[in-house]
Amino acid sequence: MTRVRSRIAAAVAVLASVVLVASGCSAFTSDSWAPPPTVTPDVSGVSADLLPFYGQEVAWESCAAEEQFDCANVRVPRDWNAPAAGEIEIAVIRHRADSGEPIGSLFTNPGGPGVSGVDTLQQALDVVVGSPLRENYDVIGFDPRGVGASTAVDCYDTADLDQYLYDIPDAPRGSDEWTAELEARDAAFAAACDANSDGLLPFVSTENAARDLDVLRAVTGQTTLDYLGYSWGTALGAAYAQLHPDRVGRMVLDGALDPSIPGAQVGVGQMEGFQRSLDAFLTSCVSYDDCPFRGTLAEASADLDAVFASVDARPLVAVDGRELGADTLMLALLNALYSPASWPYLRVTLTGVQNGDPAPAFTLADAYNERQGGGYVGNSEEAFPAYNCMDYPVAGEAETQAAQAELEQVAPLAAEYFSGPDVCEQWPYPPTGTRGPVSADGAAPILVIGTTSDPATPYQWAVSLADQLQSGVLVTRVGEGHTGYNKGNTCVDDAVVAYLVDGVVPDADIRCE
């Protein structure tokens, strides 16, 4: 039967407009670069078997034309339950504070799971943190285990990944043959991930990534963690706070995931959020001359349904030979809905599809998949299922059917074109993650930011997370788009900067119109 995919936001919205290229942590020679000051790792309370990791000396090197960027690789246990059984590397990048006098190190994560924090920070520093934070902090990005330039999940080469992500099944949508074909494709992909990832798959999880983050904190000499996490980065931050509440410094979780809801409901909640944003887009679209639709919201929605039905029946062929079917068009649509700034291009995309031109749609879908110049500049589409399949317990048949029925009510277009077999059903290892409230008892105040019309991480998730956390403070941005900080809302930005830079904790929850 058709199943709801356990798909969570693939990236924080900034990535929709930032072209990422592979960079990693290769050294860059700069005559003006000087080694950073030596720091003493924080090994307080560390057990003997973890001292080789917490006490390691980090060898920073210049890694960008701007001499304020340093890169390094940090060793962490492959298996945190058996630290002596092997190690992996975490790629780290640091932008030294513009002031030259940092108040500390601010760790960041842009989302995912699977997005490179190294590439994002190097190429979009001002989008991630903004000038007040880069002025006052050494800003640190990293590729979590399994991602990018760290010890990474590896599944397919370009040709095979293209086939897996873009090829259209031969059988009619929803038929038993269609389901069997997709399940076989998922099984082959999962087997390749296992074969090519050198035993890493069982240990790729948000909890293990949070444990790695504590090593990064320690080796940079910080006794507490200052952190700004977006989207999945909020799940990483919440996991850290639950593991190490006494080591939480100033923490901001923006575009929050709710750790208490089951995986099947995560997919439903997200698609409901995208449906609200789609309705807002269509309502806006019909007022523009370049919109391919006219009339009321209901009429525009019917026209959009017809566009999807058309490419589902007769896919459009791109110049590189790939076919644009309804699934890839849905991916393009979702990517554009992350931010209202992308809505003009979405109008161009849908007009193009109506006129038989798939190129704009492939541009959006390729950006989502980190495909660029005929290849992949990251491994997000491989790391993404690796995390989700280990983080989320398998849903039962009754739970899955209930989620599918709810999806059909709240997001009918997504129910038809964003459902199917779940690759996690074919994953070679059982999940280790659990779902439940996170309280982080004893942690310092944690700011949780929610946007009222966030398509990817519904506002209610932020409300719920702030309520679960013993020290949670909710900052509400009234508006459209994914995440709230550094999006032009002065009220939100001022609250975040005052908290991270000056330690000013809001007296109560804040609502920013």
Q: Report the uncertain regions.
A: 1-24
- Structural class label: alpha/beta
Number of domains: 2
How would you describe the shape? globular
Arithmetic mean pLDDT? 93
Tell me, what is the CATH class of the largest domain?
Alpha Beta
Number of strands: 14
The Rg value, from CA coordinates, equals: 22 Å
What percent strand?
5-15%
Major sheet summary line: 10 strands, mixed
What's the CATH architecture name of the largest domain?
Answer: 3-Layer(aba) Sandwich
Task: Determine the fraction of residues in helical runs and give it as a percent range.
Answer: 40-55%
Q: What's the tally of helices?
A: 18
The CATH H-level superfamily of the largest domain is Alpha/Beta hydrolase fold, catalytic domain
Widest sheet: strand order?
Answer: 1-2-3-5-4-6-7-12-13-14
Write the CATH fold name of the largest domain: Rossmann fold
Topology at a glance:
Blueprint: H1 51-54, E1 61-62, E2 69-77, E3 87-95, E4 105-109, H2 117-123, H3 125-128, H4 131-136, E5 138-142, H5 158-166, H6 176-196, H7 206-219, E6 225-230, H8 232-243, E7 248-254, H9 263-285, H10 297-313, E8 316-317, E9 323-324, H11 326-337, H12 343-354, H13 359-368, E10 371-372, E11 375-376, H14 380-391, H15 397-410, H16 412-417, E12 446-453, H17 459-468, E13 472-480, H18 490-502, E14 510-512
Parallel strand pairs: 4-5, 4-6, 6-7, 7-12, 12-13, 13-14
Antiparallel strand pairs: 1-2, 2-3, 3-5, 8-9, 10-11
Helix pairs in contact: 7-8, 9-15, 10-11, 11-13
